[in-house]
Amino acid sequence: MSITSLASSTGKTPANQSDEGWQRFTQLVAAVNAGNLPAARKAYDGFAKSPAADLTRANPNNRLTRALAVVGEALQSGDIPRAQQALSTIRSRAKAGTTPPTVASPQTAPTEPNGPRTNLDVVV
Asked: Which domain holds residue 44?
């Protein structure tokens, strides 16, 4: 069965399934922050089975993957404060009112020895 026919038979495309996974992630964060253990467990289970979770597991050493593993363990043992702490590690580390770091534009070598130099704009 092709992806197109699978998507039409289930009514969900792979992109929709991934979006659904990220919606489950959002529900997970909201439930954990609210201290709602049953809702957090349900959202975690839904997220864990989604293509979005597969994306996070692709790099086992990233902060999100490590935090989600701790969240799963904490929810399994009923430890909402530990799940909340784990989620806090994946929040943006940027401080309010700060500007993002700047990157100096590297200079490119001119094609002619006496020609003009050009700057590349690098956006991070």
From this structure: 11-93
